Amino acid sequence: MTNEKKPYWFVRVRWFRGHDLTAFSSELSRDFTVVRPFVSSKDWYLHRELGSLLVRADTLYALLETDKATLYQKEAAPFTRKDLELRERIFKLYPHTLRAPAAFFVQEPPFEVSE
């Protein structure tokens, strides 16, 4: 068994309503790199907003949908201040870990912080 560190990966959700990703994209682009901008489309059957926005801090990426955010790293690395800022903003906007009551038992994976 190896002690190789795994890249960070964690999902956050909103339970009852989604975000306006067009406005959120504009706000995030001031502080982070927009890797893939949001392009709006509607699901014809459920009339639900589709599409995603991908932003990057230094080592941390956030794939944002209206009701779900996936935070991840491509390679394991300590979080920088900018990574921590992106993580904090996403946690505030997507306050839950799962779409079920079992979310109480889900724990964020450990990560290191650079100095």
Structure description:
The longest helix has 13 residues, at 81-93. Helix content is 18%, strand content 23%. The protein starts with 8 loop residues before the first strand and ends in a 22-residue tail after the last helix. The chain has 2 helices and 7 strands. It has helices at residues 21-28, 81-93, and strands at 9-13, 33-36, 41-42, 49-50, 53-56, 61-64, 68-72. It has one domain (9-98). A hairpin with a 6-residue loop joins strand 3 and strand 4. The model has no long low-confidence stretch (mean pLDDT 83). The strands form 2 sheets. A 5-stranded antiparallel sheet has the order 1-7-6-5-2, with helices on one face. The protein is an alpha+beta fold.
What structural keywords apply?
115 residues, alpha+beta, five-stranded antiparallel β-sheet, two-stranded antiparallel sheet, 18% helix, 23% strand, globular
How would you write the strand order of the largest sheet?
1-7-6-5-2
The gyration radius over C-alpha positions equals: 15 Å
Strand content: 15-25%
Helical amount among residues, as a percent range? 10-25%
First CA to last CA: what distance? 29 Å
Could you say how many structural domains there are in total? 1
Number of strands: 7
Low-confidence stretches: none
SSE order: EHEEEEEEH
Tell me about the biggest sheet?
Answer: 5 strands, antiparallel
Structural class call reads alpha+beta
The mean pLDDT is 83
Shape: globular
Summed up, the helix count is 2
